[in-house]
């Protein structure tokens, strides 16, 4: 006697839609969360929020612009990994300051760097893109660690009073690639020159590139 298997049935009910959190919204939530949480039991978050608030207070950018720059950098990182034709052939970092974006790192050929620069220039609120991506092999972990050390020493030197008395180091953004130090920020011409002079004297620095946006000197006695 032959037996016949029962036909398989497939559920045709509506499936639950997949939910993909927006990384940019998550970033904004992280920045705002400390202000919304009570202090008790959330000391680390409160400290992070205080640090962020202090940076905004001393920054010459409006608070909204500081947040905009964080969002631009996050969107740039997402774009990079979404385009494997770029990510697979380069190592590029996007740094934003006052809606001006600096691209650093390495790429296999100029077309890859140009392609990424075009994508970044189309992001909301981006005013300018500076493509400083080198064409050649990607920096290894040892070089990346060396560059991070140079940036850390540069931050300390800028805030150490070496000819920059009263100058707030949080006003300068420092990016180092293969010993080349890029300086971003809203500074006066004198502040920019002094900052570059301090940084270029540090060990391991091959070159200093000023990507500053210059402003008029503040009135005497003003920060």
Overview of this protein structure:
This protein folds into 2 domains: 47-135, Histidine-containing Protein, Chain: A; 141-214, Alpha-Beta Plaits (2-Layer Sandwich). The N and C termini lie far apart (96 Å). It is globular. With 223 residues, it is an alpha/beta fold. The chain has helices at 23-36, 43-58, 63-82, 84-87, 110-121, 141-158, 189-200; strands spanning 90-97, 100-107, 128-131, 134-135, 172-177, 180-187, 207-210, 213-214. It is built from 7 helices and 8 strands. Mean pLDDT is 81; it is low at 1-22, 31-41 and 43-52.
Gist?
This protein has about 220 residues and is of the alpha/beta class.
Radius of gyration: 23 Å
* Number of beta-strand segments: 8
- Helix and strand element order: HHHHEEHEEHEEHEE
Q: What name does the CATH topology of the largest domain carry?
A: Histidine-containing Protein, Chain: A
**Count of individual domains:** 2
Helix content: 40-55%
Low-confidence stretches: 1-22, 31-41, 43-52
- Total helical segments: 7
- Helices and strands: which structural class? alpha/beta
- CATH architecture of the largest domain, by name, is 2-Layer Sandwich
In the CATH hierarchy, what is the class of the largest domain? Alpha Beta
Residue share in β-strands: 15-25%
Given the C-alpha coordinates, what overall shape results? globular
Tell me, rounded to a whole number, the average pLDDT. 81
Q: N-to-C terminal Cα separation, in Å?
A: 96 Å
Largest sheet: 4 strands, mixed
